[in-house]
Amino acid sequence: MKIPVLVLSMALALLAACSEPVPHAKASYVGQWQGGTMALEIRRDGYVHYARRSENGTTTINAPIQRFEGDNFVVGIGPLGTTFVVSKPPHLDGATWKMTVDGVELTRKAGPGETTA
Question: What is d(CA 115, CA 117) in angstroms, rounded to the nearest whole number?
């Protein structure tokens, strides 16, 4: 039966469309961040792509930002959410943008409107 697949696809598309743009005050969070075993992309439209490798495998999250709580941000759908703890918000370190999320120092590889080579 292809109808359930179509309904599921439409529901996922609607949920993805529910993401709110990143607030102007948090615009420095937007970009492709990387550090150690973590990769984090925060899109301007509020959607997050996250991957973190460990010895037990890889954890991935692809979902919208639900809200910011101070420097932290909550990502998820409906009642399911994960808080990303930001101990050092985005800041310039010389000419490099850095932030620390869940204890991992990340470096921005590409910011808004930029692409990585």
Answer: 6
pLDDT at residue 22 is higher than 50: yes
Residue with tokens 């150690």: 36
- Only one residue has tokens 């696809």, namely 9
- Residue 117 falls inside a structural domain: no
Query: At 111, phi and psi to the nearest 5?
Result: -100, -170
Q: What is the CATH number of the domain that holds 98?
A: 2.40.128
Has residue 58 been placed in a domain? yes
> Residues 22, 42: contact at Cβ < 8 Å?
yes
Asked if residue 17 has pLDDT above 80, the reply is no
Show the tokens assigned to 85: 């703890």
